[in-house]
Amino acid sequence: MNILEKFAEVPKLETERLILRKITRDDAEDMYSYASNEEVTRDVTWETHSSLSDTVEFIHTFLSQYDALWGIELKENGTFIGTVHFVWWQPEHNSAEIGYVLSKEYWGKGIITEAAMAVISFGFDRMNLVRIQARCFLENKGSERVMNKLGMSFEGISRKVMYVKGEHRDLKVYSIVKF
Q1: 177: part of which helix (H) or strand (E)?
Q2: CA Rg, the chain, in Å?
Q3: How far apart are CA 40 and CA 44, in angstroms?
Q4: Which residue in 21, 83, 84, 119 is a FRET match for 135, CA 20 to 30 A apart?
């Protein structure tokens, strides 16, 4: 089961500063502005985009690949600045993994924490999740700070668990559980 089977479409979520909504092809230019930044793509599994057509293809692939995917839009001006999503969802285990990426211009402003908190609340309240995990590369201190702010607990390091960009990488694993 994926989120579209359960909810018919990606539900729109709102926070104080953000609208979390379905991603469309119209978001390609805004996405390209951060997906072409090597500093942003250093800590993600996908390659830096070298053209707008890379981003259009990525959106097409991305939309079909993940179980629940929200675009992050600023309420104040409608700018698309990143994504937050469930990388995978296992309804039979009431478990999911959250992932996120944000335009560098908005780093350090609590935006990803705000967006991820909304998605975590949605997961616990509407998807019947009991456990939500997140993972990051060892050197990704920003993502690790977000996980801590979300109330996630460090579980350990999965050694050489992912082959990304030509090398096997270790990942830190964090989780939060519903009580």
Answers
A1: strand 167-177
A2: 15
A3: 8
A4: 21
pTM summary value? 0.90
Half-sphere exposure of 162 (CA within 13 A, CB side): 17
Q: Which of 25, 83, 30 is nearest to 56 (CA)?
A: 25
For 137-175, what is each residue's pLDDT tens digit? 999 999 999 999 999 999 999 999 999 999 999 999 999
Cα–Cα distance, 171 to 80 (Å, whole number): 28
Non-local CB neighbours of 142 within 8 Å, separated by 6+ positions: 43, 107, 108
E strands in 33-121: 68-74, 80-90, 95-102
Hey, what domains does the chain have and what are their CATH numbers?
Answer: 3-129 (3.40.630.30)
Whether the CA torsion 91, 21, 42, 146 is positive or negative: it is negative
Tell which residue, 85, 62, 73, has the closest CA to residue 20: 73
